[in-house]
Amino acid sequence: MLLQWLINGILTSNGNRWREMRRFSLMTLRNFGMGKRSIEDRVQEEARCLVEELRKTKSSPCDPTFLLDCAPCNVICSIIFHNRFDYKDHHFLNLLQKLNENVKILSSSWLQVCNNFPALIDYFPGSHRKYLKNVADMKKYYLEKIKEHQESLEINNPQDFIDCFLIKMEEEKGNPQTKFVTDALINVVHDLFGAGTETTSTTLRYGLLLLLKHPEVTAKVHEEIDRVIGRHRSPCMQDKNSMPYTEAVLHEIQRYIDLVPTSLPHAVTCDIKFRNYFIPKGTTIITSLTSVLHDSKEFPNPEKFDPGHFLDTSGKFKKSDYFMAFSTGKRICAGEGLARMELFLFLTTILQNFHLKSVVDPKDLDTTPVVNGFFSVPPAYQICFIPV
User: Fold this and answer.
1) Which of 74, 158, 245, 283 is disulfide-compatible with 163, CB 3.0–4.6 A?
2) Which residue, 144, 58, 130, 60, is CA-closest to 97?
3) Taking a C-beta distance cutoff of 8 angstroms, is the pair 259, 203 a contact?
4) For the residues of 29-78, what is the DSSP string, one character each?
5) What is the mean pLDDT of residues 77-102?
6) Is residue 113 pLDDT above 90, yes or no?
7) For the segment 23-32, what is each residue's pLDDT rounded down to a tens digit?
């Protein structure tokens, strides 16, 4: 399968390699602030930068795709590369363009065919070749950054994720079985860069479209922001406990858009019998998160966008075991905590500073994904950010 082309990273590796890479990555990300106040400060600062960029649109219609890509991307870049990029930086925008293009390619019908018939990859032209070229170009950039880090590395003072990985490589260089090699570092960086950017930015982009479509929902979020946060300070994670409606909206956005309908491919680790089916060890399993997120018994009228799916009768936020937007099990998204923080802080900061205006009648907005394969990709749209 094409998704298994990157075998040394976190997302598509398995066995000891996956365990070692995930354990190291989680430990290092936590050391650099994931789940701590320090990373919240970074997200808040990036949210303020995003607001300034949105102000530059001067209330004119714009496609928010790249601006919403830049904000979460800069957060993960500060962890991986120890620096953020200007929103107009050529290299930055080039990387984001390739990443955005690859998400659409991965979700295309042709890629679904290639995943089922891998032999086609070697013999037929098609978008998969563009996908592989984009990945190669991005990996070339990561290698350049790694070489820069090797030249400036201080063993006792690591500055970012790459530094920590290089130190681990040095510690393991006498081990012939080590998984900590340069190719692995490139692929882990690729996984972190992509997963740390595209999932959050696409959710934000889709979320703003749904808020345009449902102005009555947006008005209630504005009211909660005014009441709990006000206009004179930045939103913080502590506010979330006092904002059940906003929390319900964020959950409903993720449930409704069903961002990664089949999650990543998995494999059974032993022979197993499931519902009278025998599944041999090593069989690739494709799960359906859609069947859970759109379960009509848990979420009445699941095709309707309704924050009430996550509110009880008294208006308090209601958790659901069926909420699996980040997948589930041992391979649940490693960056779930960071993604939740970014979604809350970015969305509330945007709505604290702007009213959202559609260029067409909200009733005419189409929220149907343009492609719905590996990712659910929202249609392109124009939006006006009107300062409050």
Assistant:
1) 158
2) 130
3) yes
4) HHHTTTTSHHHHHHHHHHHHHHHHHHHTTTT--B--HHHHHHHHHHHHHH
5) 90
6) no
7) 898 888 888 7
- Contacts (Cβ under 8 Å, ≥6 apart) of 307: 217, 245, 248, 249, 251, 252
- Measured CA to CA, the distance from residue 341 to residue 198 in angstroms comes to 15
Burial 330-341 (b: 16+ CB within 10 A, else e): eeebbbebbbbb
| Strand (E) or helix (H) holding 277 | strand 277-279
Tokens (6 digits) for 90: 């050529």
The answer to whether the beta carbons of residues 285 and 320 sit under 8 Å apart is no
Pairing type for strands 284-285 and 266-267 reads: antiparallel
Is 180 in contact with 169 (CB distance < 8 Å)? yes
Residue type, 284: T
State the pLDDT confidence band at 311, using cuts at 50, 70 and 90.
very high
Binding residues for heme: 333
Contact 219, 227 (CB under 8 A): no
pLDDT digits (tens, 9 = 90+) for 163-200: 999 999 999 988 988 989 999 999 999 989 988 898 99
CB 281 within 8 A of CB 317: no
Give the Cα separation of 136 and 297 in Å (integer): 45
Q: Cβ of 359: how many Cβ atoms within 10 Å?
A: 13
Quick one: which of 225, 227, 246 has its CA closest to 340?
246
- The mean pLDDT of 101-123, rounded to a whole number, is 68
Three-class DSSP labels, 84-138: CCCCCCHHHHHHHHHHHHHHHHHCCHHHHHHHHCCCHHHHCCCHHHHHHHHHHHH
* Global confidence as pTM: 0.88
Q: How far is CA 333 from CA 11, 242, 337, in A?
A: 9, 26, 9
| Residue corresponding to tokens 């354990």 | 23
Instruction: Band the pLDDT of 161: cuts 50, 70, 90.
Output: very high
Q: Are strands 277-279 and 272-274 parallel, antiparallel or unpaired?
A: antiparallel
C-beta neighbour count of 329 within 10 angstroms: 9
Distance of alpha carbon 55 from alpha carbon 386, whole angstroms: 8
Inter-helix orientation angle 15-31/182-213, to 10°: 70
Q: Annotated binding residues, as ranges?
A: 333
Which two three-digit tokens encode residue 242?
């006092």
Q: What tokens does 258 get?
A: 């069903």
Residue position matching structure tokens 């998160």: 289
